[in-house]
Amino acid sequence: MTARYGRVLLKLSGEALMGEHQFGIDPAVTTQVAKEIAEIQALGVQVAVVIGGGNLFRGLSASAKGMDRSTADYMGMLATVINGLALQDSLEKVGINTRVLSAIEMRAVAEPFIRRRAVRHLEKGRVVVFAAGTGNPYFTTDTAAALRAMEMKADVILKGTKVDGIYTADPMLHPTATKYDQISYLKVLEQGLKVMDATAISLCMDNKLPIVVFNLRTAGNLRRVIAGEPVGTTVTAE
Prior knowledge:
Blueprint: E1 7-12, H1 27-41, E2 46-51, H2 59-64, H3 69-93, E3 98-102, E4 111-112, H4 115-123, E5 127-131, H5 141-151, E6 156-161, E7 166-167, E8 179-180, E9 182-184, H6 185-190, H7 198-206, E10 211-215, H8 221-226, E11 233-236
Parallel strand pairs: 1-2, 1-6, 2-5, 3-4, 3-5, 6-10, 9-11
Antiparallel strand pairs: 7-8, 10-11
Helix pairs in contact: 1-3, 5-7
């Protein structure tokens, strides 16, 4: 099987790591994700990962309850480091060399983010997990994913979610919602579809970086996307 992409950035929401729990990290989920990443790495694909922190702390909802937005966002960034370390542990248990690079310096647990060093890790066949978002408040991990993907010159952003693509409306709330196989960045922005936030979509649009939204919970989906099978929804300029 040949890989359609040589270097990918996988964006995972923090909620994806909860599994069926209401909070925290389900080790069974991180193990499953690690195995899927190992599968595509065996095909020669270089993998970078950005994880959110919503399973542990959500800055936006804390600021809505009166906490200072910058403080809340920094707390959210620290939550992504915890998730990054959990994924690193699962990846190394399946034999994949992994480096966590943090946008906020904490040398005891993660390397500081240096672009050239990150690229070198990828070239050496290591999985790179980018933690702490962009290192700035007011920016989401979606925007961090778009930014890191540009910096790494990734071929695509793979956004792993709990639905199998982008729909005209939330399929959980609207059973009649229909799925898009392909959609343009502009349409996503115009229709306010909750794929990634507007800053991230705009960044991808300006740099013509495709996004594939797929269901991470279906075993083997990551490999299928890499093989170029019609899985999920692709967001491109057309």
